[in-house]
Design brief:
Layout lengths: L2 H13 L2 H8 L3 H15 L4 E4 L2 E4 L1 H24 L7 E8 L4 H15 L2 E8 L2 H10 L4 E4 L10 E16 L3 H5 L1 E2 L8 E5 L2 H13 L6 E5 L5 H7 L3 E5 L12 E6 L4 E9 L6 H7 L8
Parallel strand pairs: 3-4, 3-5, 7-11, 8-9, 8-10
Antiparallel strand pairs: 1-2, 5-12, 6-10, 6-11, 6-12
Helix pairs in contact: 1-2, 1-3, 1-4, 2-3
């Protein structure tokens, strides 16, 4: 069994989705599905339970997960052991990412990095911002992608700004704002701002829109991005998102994506621990498109 198949299996298990895993592995979904089925056929076991909500590991799948993780790690160590005389740089980076923004911000950097260092494997864990920060501090993650840089990080994390994402508003479809195609401060005076309960992210977005004069009558918090649209409609409110989250709402039948009258921007960052324990983090930082650090 190919070790790369095992590496692919680990990503599918972490993401619970073949399509998301395929995107992160830069291969097509049918090819990845074929590889997973080949593994199941070879082992003569079912590794995943498949449902409309995604994939979950079977008991055998959980055993395979821990075994494959150990095999992949040992394989990477062997590659490093036998190839130093050829000046081959090899190892692993563990990256915490948000569920959105991979194609725009992460994939181009990873592609450049992989061309230069093909033997440094990058593994991904999709987390919320607070878990990414905690993972970096605790050493479970080497680097993270974040939509802001204001966290209680105990002064242990450095942030590298790699771009500014345009902000948009999600509004009820068919309403006056949707028909106009942009939102102005007067539109939100009697409206409800729907936002996520993740305080650090919410505070940054709310501050940006409030500073620009968008001051709603009240704020309503939700747990997940996916349910925001239904509350925008039921409350006749609006929801603020960075551009890299637009694909969540583009196919919606109930809400519309509109611009702000004057563009608003959200900086995005890669974060890492100030005291680098993984030597490959600095190599990855060299592949980033900006030298602006915070």
């Amino acid at each position: 069994m190919h070790v790369e198949y095992m590496r692919e299996f680990l990503v599918v298990a972490d993401e619970g989705s073949v399509s998301v895993a395929a995107s992160k592995l830069h291969i097509t979904q049918p090819v990845l599905s074929k590889h997973i089925r080949a593994m199941e056929d070879t082992l003569n076991v079912q590794l995943f339970l498949r449902s409309p909500k995604g994939l979950t590991l079977t008991p055998r799948g959980k055993q395979a997960y821990h075994t494959f993780k150990d095999i992949v790690s040992r394989y990477d160590d062997i590659v490093c052991l036998f190839q130093p005389e050829n000046n081959v740089v090899c190892g692993q980076l563990r990256m915490g990412i948000l569920s959105m923004g991979f194609d725009r911000y992460i994939a181009p950097v990873v592609e450049r990095f992989n061309r230069q260092y093909p033997n440094i494997a990058i593994s991904y864990a999709t987390e919320n911002p607070l878990d990414i920060v905690d993972g970096i501090i605790d050493g479970d993650l080497d680097i993270g992608f974040l939509g802001q840089a204001r966290f209680d990080d105990k002064g242990q994390i450095s942030y590298r700004c790699i771009g500014k994402d345009v902000l948009h508003a999600i509004v009820p479809k068919g309403g006056p704002v949707a028909q106009r195609g942009y939102i102005v401060p007067a539109d939100v005076t009697d409206a409800v701002l729907v936002c996520l309960k993740i305080k650090e992210t919410t505070d940054v977005l709310n501050e940006l829109v409030a500073t620009a004069g968008y001051k709603p009558k009240s704020i309503f918090e939700v747990d997940e991005v996916e349910v925001a649209a239904s509350f925008v409609v039921s409350l006749n409110g609006f929801f603020v998102i960075p551009d890299f989250m637009c694909d969540v709402f583009e196919a919606s039948r109930t809400v519309e994506i509109v611009d702000f009258e004057s563009p608003l921007y959200l900086p995005v960052f890669f974060a890492h621990k100030k005291t680098l324990k993984n030597q490959f983090v600095s190599l990855f930082l060299d592949a980033l498109p900006s030298d602006e650090a915070r």
